[in-house]
Amino acid sequence: MCCCCCEDCECRPLGFLLGLPFAFLSLLISVVGIVIWIVGLALTCLCPCCLCATVIVELALALIKAPILVMKWFTSKIPC
Question: Quick one: CA dihedral 51, 61, 26, 38, positive or negative?
């Protein structure tokens, strides 16, 4: 349980609520990232020496992780 007077408070409901629209947008971006990841994996299987396909897969993985990172960022910026 968390009170508002503690300094190491991890529960920030206001930050969570303010971050929801941005998390939804990043969720849509992560769906695009999944599609890019599948295409990048197919390119990597067809031509394993192609370095640009590896970069595309890494970018797609970053897009897939976006909703979690956005919510963590928003909740960290709003005080308890």
Answer: positive
